[in-house]
Design brief:
Chain lengths: 384, 384, 384, 384
């Protein structure tokens, strides 16, 4: 159970993506965060890396990291590229060519030509080049794929995928820099909403059906005038196994929060899954009733089994709720060490008093239950 | 950002609770797993601890751990007690008395008297004694508490809590050891389903309302004959702030998966939350419409903000899906290192080819969108 | 297909219950509204009855109606009693004793003694005395009953019924006469919320399980101070076939709209149904998956088949939506007859222009579909 | 309150559409079924009409009906045309030209040219020609229209409509006559699924937004080989008020039951409604939370208020459930008259015994509630 060594480029202090990758890579204790070039501002990146425990493997830029790591016997086993989109190609290419495995944030490149080059390098070198379409990691998405592959719904006729939200619907907010860059061709290329969100739905259509998209036709619109790129698109497509596809993506769909969902219809069954409620997969075998497959139920596929961490019925995020008790305690302990008051918003962990009250309630329930439901004091004696 | 040192007692190889605590404690990189007495079989515990990287702080039993750790300057900051229920009291007591902070699995003790003793020790020593009612860690549960505390629903009139599942409904399975022990007074004490599940719902009622239970009346039944303890209970209760409570818990409710939910009704509003869909909190202000509060939305309470890790609309378990890409990659890399084929069920991470295909699709969408929706080849040239 | 003759007592102009009974009795064209004593104000009742087409069988009070009808050869076949609660006993008794079949609004009587008298009279005379627990008329409720009766869930262990709403939660509104009378012992007797709503849930528990309640224990509370009768109750009960029951009813549950629901758990399966979404019945056979039974699906029970009027997937209220087109047309036609403008809120029926536009769209879809999805004018020529 | 006179052409014995129209027209007692030519088999139609009470206004064909009715002073006020599609044009035209108001089943005609002719006749004669897009009759659909019209969501940017079911997904069943005719150009014209179902969704898009479709582009496919017409279509469209439209319709979407739904997104809000749960309308004002509008709530639009018949929280189909009690009673009474056993599937109406048991339960609840929740016998004395 020796951990693999993991490095990251990008994901500097204050970024959202950095913690997400650290959490993801660390969750199962399979990787150890070992090296990084975390910020385009060299010194900030080094300082932050040191604070995260990287020591002298906190680098000022990715070139330094590459040249230093490739000389080491204990070089990192995997490099995650989480820099701005336009730099993905160059960095991914360089690390692959120097013998590293890479996990690149999406989009892998800005052009098709660059993409082909990366594929060729990955193939030539034999190094792993993964791309972070993380939604395919859900246990029941993997089970859908396994069900389709083993023929549970027969030949796939049609896929209908969606990724529709309303978070960029406010015209008054369209020139806010936080939103505007997403519709700026100089920064995101030829497509906005489809490239940002729709592509997740399209990848999932391929992932689940095991078929690749061969051709497509799109209706793209900008509902907010100042945008030159689309904020809503409908894409019809065809797949190499014969499936027909429909895909809707939108960022102006007020009332929709996330909206990544997929429906797959085959000759002998249909499946439906939505990211907002990822623990249920709706399945109807032809001629039977709609049934609900639960994440974690017995006898799912190996693909599902190895990607679930909590028992059936729990929200998949239960470990994160659980972790919050630990973050409360970390704050409580640290505050004591530092001689300060703790953050009141963290002062919520259950205490010995709660454990005691529970025990008193258990005894009262048991006794009342035996005595025809009489009312009993449920408090521990010391709190009466 | 120096990590705190964390130790665990119990949670040996093959247990479910051990990985859950390691995941929970490690999630935010606040704790480092430093010491442990993981198994009642001394050597197995030491071996397993060493494999988990504990070195010479892998102990053969909790007594050894206690005496060794208390002599160290760098002693563990927090000890989690995850041993069989009947040993919680003794271990928790010993560590508290020797100056350690403790997180004890539920139930904290087997009797009220023991519970009172723990409370007194915690108060006398000033050490933290937390109990693991982990469901209170959900971001929106904390927000419910904050809303009630700041008066959003006025004085609380009534709480209705449930924890009803159907996993012990099969009479033919009742003598299966995996199920039977849960209804054996020798092992679980005076109550089965209420002590195991119902108590979570009751604690949550207290947590959310900020009121303690003062008295109760219970109707307990054993729907399966061989059981001497209850598998279904209805508990009516009263709280010290005047709230009326109803609580239903069951393990024979076929069709229910988990069923922890809570409804709180006040003078000026009502709230409803369910663990199976933890990202939505239903709120109706008196005289207005039912509205849906989403985890991660803007302007929630500090209690909610500090306990959420992914943006609005994502399932709270999204980081775990994301982590599955990393576990795939760990398997892929390790298999290469070990010169073996990788687990096919892990061979599902998105590849450079997927990144390339996505880019080709993006360009096709953009072009089709500009050209009145004509059909275009969506494949990268190298795959045509 | 000669219609039966139907009479009503009560349900005068402006009442809610009158139109409901007229609609219900007339829906399948099985009854003809023939006679009535609709109002305690004699002349108003006669006038209103005449306007409803009753002619000289519009009576001034129920005594007149009884004495006149019993002399006729073509007397009414069924009398509905929809008067204030306290008069149900007297009227029902009189009609039964004179040879009429009766459908009495709930509650049938104000006391148990009166109830026993009615039962005895019904048995002695052999006349039908029905009570209007109308929720048992839902197709899938009847199917639940049939499933339980034929053993689909085995011996019933537990029933959990609810009828919880929040429409009387406003303390400021508690003395509003529209609400207050419901909690006034002088008008409603010994119980408010349980007698008004909870009793529907309890009747449904009996209806579905085929078991009668033998004993019960209740926790009743008045959450609003001015009330002497309960606005929230939890009732535990036992049934003569061995089932355990739980029943929660509330009128202060802010955020709940109607909340009549029932869960039945047996030895080999569980069922769940809710009045707010009456077209789906959730069913889990022990050890299998939760499945969704749809109203109108093939091969349901005869009890379900004869009580459904629209095909699967339609809301059960579809005929009422459909009827609204007719009410629009009635208003349009009547306005023309009366030489006035029609109600603009009714001026919404689809017109020839809509039929024409639809046809143009159909042709455009067919042609575009054949021509690789080109854009086509979808308007009829005359509207271009 | 004199009823209008209503006539029907088509809808003969055993048809589904006939009873639906009789129910719809009769529901509010605004129309009286007065005349009809119900069957293309002359004598069968006359016999059936007589059994339905039409007397000598039961005609053998529509020509007879037309010539007889137009001579009467008390001619029918409205004629419903519910014959096979290909005859709609001819009949509708004839009645309109002779001074009758007409409600024509959908599709109004088989060609655009015929459609234009009908529109012209309707305009010239001034007679009402309505088309039965009945789904627009739902109360909350009308409220959506009112909300959009009064500006609640600002200028409409996008409409997304669906009508997707899976009832024609079985390839083995495709040649079954019950299904096959729906895909036969000789019988249905140029389009199958779009013309049958999709058109409802498109009409609803126009109805709700108040905008007409100007152009469209379609992707139509036949997922089952033997079909020459489409069983799945995606239609993009534009509307005359600037709205963009997307519409998906399918008959091979296994797992979907009915699937008529509509989402409307404007500059300042979004709306979502689904026919399968027609009592809830989801509304998000820009920058606020998703809220749930309930059919029947206070202060809705006049358009909504006049089209709802039951109070908030009830399923819209509640009156139909209620009516089932009456159909039970009709069967019970008729069976007695005819001296036969009643249909056991109808023998389910609540009886005096149920009314009595309810009263006993009410008293027991009230007493137990007063006496600290003691258990009491809940049975009426006569049943103990």
């Amino acid at each position: 159970m020796k951990k693999l060594k993991w490095g990251m480029i990008g994901g500097g202090e204050g970024s959202q993506i950095g913690p997400a990758h650290r959490l993801g890579s660390g969750l199962d204790s399979l990787f150890e965060f070992t090296a990084g070039a975390l910020d385009h501002r060299s010194q900030e990146g080094i300082d932050y890396g040191k604070r995260l425990g990287l020591g002298d493997r906190a680098y000022g830029d990715w070139q330094d990291m590459l040249s230093a790591e490739k000389k080491r016997d204990d070089r990192v086993d995997l490099v995650t590229v989480a820099t701005p989109n336009s730099t993905h190609f160059e960095i991914t290419k360089a690390f692959l060519e120097n013998g590293f495995h890479v996990l690149c944030e999406k989009p892998m490149t800005m052009t098709v030509e660059e993409g082909e080059e990366i594929v060729k390098i990955a193939r030539t070198t034999g190094n792993i080049c993964a791309v972070n379409y993380g939604y395919t990691g859900y246990s029941l998405v993997r089970h859908m794929k396994a069900m389709v592959a083993r023929g549970d719904i027969g030949k796939v006729r049609l896929v209908n995928a969606e990724f529709a939200h309303g978070h960029h619907a406010d015209a008054a907010d369209a020139n806010n820099p936080r939103v505007r860059w997403r519709y700026d061709p100089a920064q995101v290329g030829v497509s906005a909403q489809f490239a940002d969100c729709g592509i997740h739905a399209m990848h999932m259509a391929s992932f689940v059906t095991g078929q690749e998209v061969t051709k497509l036709a799109a209706d793209t619109v900008s509902c907010i005038d100042v945008r030159t790129l689309e904020d809503d698109a409908m894409v019809n497509f065809r797949m190499d196994g014969g499936a027909v596809g429909r895909l809707w993506t939108s960022s102006i769909a007020i009332g929709r929060q996330h909206g990544l969902s997929i429906q797959v219809f085959g000759e002998t069954g249909g499946l439906r899954w939505s990211q907002e409620h990822p623990n249920q997969l709706y399945y109807m075998p032809l001629g039977e009733r709609l049934q609900i497959i639960e994440r974690g139920e017995a006898n799912l596929s190996p693909e599902a089994d190895r990607t679930t961490r909590v028992t059936i019925g729990h929200a998949e995020g239960m470990p994160l709720a659980f972790a919050n008790i630990y973050t409360d305690l970390a704050e409580a302990i640290t505050a004591r060490k530092e001689g300060r008051d703790m953050d009141p918003a963290a002062n919520l962990y259950p205490r010995a008093e709660d454990g005691l009250r529970s025990m008193a309630a258990v005894y009262a329930v048991a006794e009342s239950g035996k005595k025809d439901g009489i009312w009993l004091d449920a408090r521990p004696p010391m709190f009466r």
